[in-house]
Amino acid sequence: MSANGEDSAGTGVNAPLQGDNNAPNSGAVYLFTRASGVWTQQSYVKASNADLDDQFGSSIALYGDTLVVGTPNEDSWGVGVNVAVQGDNSAANSGAAYVFQRNSGVWAQEAYLKASNTGTDDQFGTSVAIAGDTVVVGAAQEDGNGTGVNPNTQGDNGATDSGAVYVFTRSGSTWTQQAYLKPSNTGAGDRFGDSITLAGDTLAVGAPFEDSIGVGISPSAESDNSAANSGAVYVFGRTSGAWRQDAYLKASNTGSGDMFGSAISLAGDSLAVGAPEEDGAGTGINPGITSEADNSAANSGGVYVFR
After folding, report:
1. How far apart are CA 237 and CA 233, in angstroms?
2. All structural domains of the chain with their residue ranges
3. Residues contacting 145, CB < 8 A, separation 6+
4. Cα–Cα distances in Å, from 255 out to 129, 188, 243?
5. How far apart are CA 257 and CA 203, in angstroms?
6. What is the pLDDT of residues 185-233, one digit of tens each?
7. What contacts 171, CB < 8 A, 6 or more positions away?
8. pTM exceeding 0.90
9. CATH class of residue range 2-279
């Protein structure tokens, strides 16, 4: 359970300064366990470099005994895993993610993650996901203008707020970055990485402000940006440690402002995609093409399921 506006100045796990509110909006995460139907608090978790307005806990993901916490407003300029410059806040809102591991009921920080191309206002940690020994972190305001997997343009910030996703893997207790992902049609303001979901070797990434007019699965209209903020979702697969883009998904009734991809969830071979500002007037499941095109229920919202 997260409280990204929590104010204490403590650092680490079960810090003694819970009542010292000298770090406004630094954020905290609370872990609870259940035994025989009774819930108790197990830990109170802060970042190793807790600071005001970092908003630790803006995103969280838990898998077994591993917890990852996104902190998109963290300010250090460090690059990579467990860098030593956690206290140098010269890259405002660059963002960070923290990995915690539980052993015999005791939680400890295992890793401090930064992007491979840390930049001011990138908001690395906007979203996080974990499956097994893989952690994925979204930076929805990253500015790289590259496309695809591991483009060599990480330092070229020509696509403001296009967004990026970073994949990290663990061997033993050591984390390393495995991939830097961009969509196949990178565009300024698309916010690729605003939402992410991971299941095994399949990753889906939402870009709710993507603008193409395309409809359906992998349409050819990726570069026709005449449907502002219609939104898109990108599906990536991994084989032998190598990532590739498998699909580019649009709604069956793409419309400007629908924000398709704002929320996504992947389980097995099924992917659900939310479009909270979709305008269809239909009700129920598969209300029909006529209802999909009837936009008389402004911002009523819709959910699309892909297999």
Report:
1. 13
2. 2-279
3. 153, 156, 157, 158, 159, 162, 186
4. 28, 19, 30
5. 24
6. 999 999 999 999 999 999 999 999 999 999 999 888 888 899 999 999 9
7. 133
8. yes
9. mainly beta
